[in-house]
Protein 1
Amino acid sequence: MSTRNVDTPPSNLASLFRGLYARVADRLGVDPSYVSRVARGERRSDAIEAAVEREMRQLLKHTKAKPQRSQQQNHNHNGTGRASKAATRAKR
C-alpha cells in the first residue's frame, strides 16, 4: 500500500476497497471467499476479522474526503455560518 494521502470523494471509496478480501487472503494464506464469509458473519475467525479491520483502517487512513464546494462557499470568516447584520445591510 502506498503511504501517500489520496483526496477521494466518498463516492469513490468503494473502488478503494476493491481487492481488500484478496489482499487479506494472500496475507493469511486463505481463500478470498472465506475472508468474505467471515466479513459477512457467516464464519468466525479472530485472525481474519483483525486483518480485515487493519486493512480497512489503512485504507481510511490514506484517504481524505474533500469538502464540497458549496460547503466552502457557505462559511463566512467568523465561522458562525451566518452573515452579520452589517454585512447583510451592506449587500442591499
Protein 2
Amino acid sequence: MKPLLITDNFVALDDTNGARSLSVDANFWDSLEKGEFGDFSRLISFYEFDGDWETWEKHPNGEEFVYLIEGEVEFILESNGVTSDLIMDEPNSFIIVPKDTWHTANVRKPTKMFFVTPGEGTEIKPR
C-alpha cells in the first residue's frame, strides 16, 4: 500500500463502511455514469475551479459536504422557490448542502475544494 493523491484518485464509500479508491482519468465521469465502478453511497472528491459552474445540481439521496481548501466562492442554493447565497472565503470553512437542494457556484477567486457527495440519483441542469 502507498499513499494516493486526491487529485488523481477519488474515494468511494459503501454502506458497509468500506472504502476504495477510483482512478480519475479522462473517462472517469463516463465510467461512473455507466456504473463501471459498482455500488457505493458516497464519493469523496477534490476539484479546482477557476470559473463559475456551468450547471446546477442536486442530490436527492442525501446531503453534500463541501469544504473550502483555498479561494473564494459564492454558493447559490435553491429549494422550494427560495434562493440563498453563501459566501465561502475562509480556508477550512465548509457547508452542508441540504438533501434535494439545487446548487451552483460563482467562483470569485480560484478555488480548491473537497466534496463528500451522495452521488446516486444526482440531477444536473444547465445554468
Protein 3
Amino acid sequence: MTAANSTAAGRNVLVVSTVAEPAAALGDQIRVDDVVKVVVPVVGQGILDWLANDERAFSEAQETAETTARELPGTTVAADAGEADVALAIRDALATFPADVIVVAVEADGYEGLDDVLAADGSAAGVRMVEGVPVHVVTLAGPAA
C-alpha cells in the first residue's frame, strides 16, 4: 500500500440525484471503500399529480435510488426516495447519515437555483456546503431532443 492509499480512507458519501440514470457519471466521484447513501427526490410532478399519483412517483424514485445504489462502487447502506425539494432531501438524509461529502447529480437545466440552496448555510463564496458538509455537483446532459 502506498502512502497516498494509506491516507485515503473510505468516506461516508451522500448521493442525491434528480436524474434517472446517474451512475455512469457518478462512478468517478465514489471510491470502492466509500460508504454510500443514495437519495432520489420525488420530483417532476405538480400538486395535482402529487395528490393523484403520490405512490407511483414515490415508487419510481425508490426504484431509481435502488438501481443507482447497485451500480455505484462502494458499500451502500441505504437507497431511498426523498423529499421533492433537493435541499430538504439533503437535510433529511444528513439527519440519519453522517456524510463526509455530498454528491448531487442534476440535469444541466436543473442546476439553475441550486447554488443559492447550497450556499445558504453561510459558506464561503465558491465553496458549496450544506450543514458544514462539502457538496460536489455533477451536471448531466438532459435527454436528446
